[in-house]
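Design request, tokens follow.
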């Protein structure tokens, strides 16, 4: 009997909510911080139409229309009131998430693959095929951006580290570069064995995590000289990574199969496998409360996975019988 109950609970746990609406692969996901209206989830897609959803139910809130190419990256302010997107149409756009209106469009000379926004929503950073980091001031949107050069290949990730007054960029050249926000000067480099596919800060902003080839990497960002990097070598090349808020597990997606894997943070051991997508996994992201994992795939869907089965959450109802 106990074994049957455990099997039923496991089956309940791995049944996701499926969010339709996109028509091409979903390549990036991000949750906002909790707001008065709840948590929001933004998705980037090759169909060029980033979408905003309720972060608990997955219900569609709105679509940002205006890009003329694939949208590779989307980020929101902590309050969720503004979003920035980077696209293959050589632009980055800033949006009002309440009205859906486009506030600013910043032209680039090639594909924009990565964007981020400052915590106070006053500046945005972009990177992409030009291998150039740009910093735009939203108080002076017509002013030329600050620029920094250092990568030798496409910038795949830009991370805004407000607490330490710096930007971090990850590139296809296998380098993570650290930039002083006050001077836009390069201050340090982390060298990796393969191109950087994904990079982000943990929800509490204490840990920088990234994927490089088959490695999942975690750096205590308050440490000196990168001596606190923990690296787990996994079975597949990784496309995306997300650390649970309690730092006990991390989720990893791969372009080599259809499964989302949950690993032990301390050991790297595989703990669970979530099956449901019909295409390779491009992006994974834990919600701020850790109750949910959002995943995006080549199959054009966003799926929401409930993390625990012992209580109700969102549209999931716990059956006590």
């Amino acid at each position: 009997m106990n074994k049957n109950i455990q099997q039923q609970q496991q089956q309940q746990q791995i049944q996701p909510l499926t969010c339709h609406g996109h028509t091409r692969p979903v390549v990036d996901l991000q949750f906002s911080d909790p707001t008065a209206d709840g948590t929001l989830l933004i998705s980037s897609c090759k169909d060029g139409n980033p979408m905003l959803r309720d972060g608990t139910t997955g219900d569609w809130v709105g679509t940002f229309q205006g890009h003329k190419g694939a949208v590779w990256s989307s980020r929101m302010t902590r309050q969720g009131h503004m979003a920035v997107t980077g696209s293959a149409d050589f632009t980055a756009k800033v949006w009002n998430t309440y009205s859906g209106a486009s506030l600013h469009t910043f032209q680039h000379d090639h594909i924009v693959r990565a964007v981020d926004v400052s915590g106070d929503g006053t500046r945005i950073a972009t990177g992409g095929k030009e291998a150039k980091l740009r910093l735009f001031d939203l108080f002076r949107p017509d002013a030329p951006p600050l620029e920094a050069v250092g990568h030798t290949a496409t910038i795949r990730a830009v991370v805004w580290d407000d607490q330490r007054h710096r930007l971090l960029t990850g590139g296809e050249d296998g380098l993570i570069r650290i930039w002083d926000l006050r001077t836009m000067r390069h201050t340090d480099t982390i060298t990796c064995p393969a191109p950087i596919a994904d990079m982000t800060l943990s929800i509490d902003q204490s840990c920088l995590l990234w994927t490089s080839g088959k490695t999942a990497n975690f750096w205590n960002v308050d440490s000196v000289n990168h001596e606190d990097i923990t690296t787990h070598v996994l079975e597949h090349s990784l496309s995306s990574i997300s650390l649970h808020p309690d730092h006990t597990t991390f989720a990893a997606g791969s372009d080599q199969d259809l499964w989302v894997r949950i690993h032990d943070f301390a050991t790297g051991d595989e703990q669970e496998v979530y099956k449901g997508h019909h295409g390779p996994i491009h992006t994974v992201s834990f919600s701020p409360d850790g109750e949910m994992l959002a995943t995006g795939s080549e199959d054009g869907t966003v799926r929401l996975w409930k993390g625990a089965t012992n209580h109700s959450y969102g549209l999931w109802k716990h059956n006590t019988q």
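Comment from the thread starter after seeing the answer: thanks! The longest helix spans residues 2-13.
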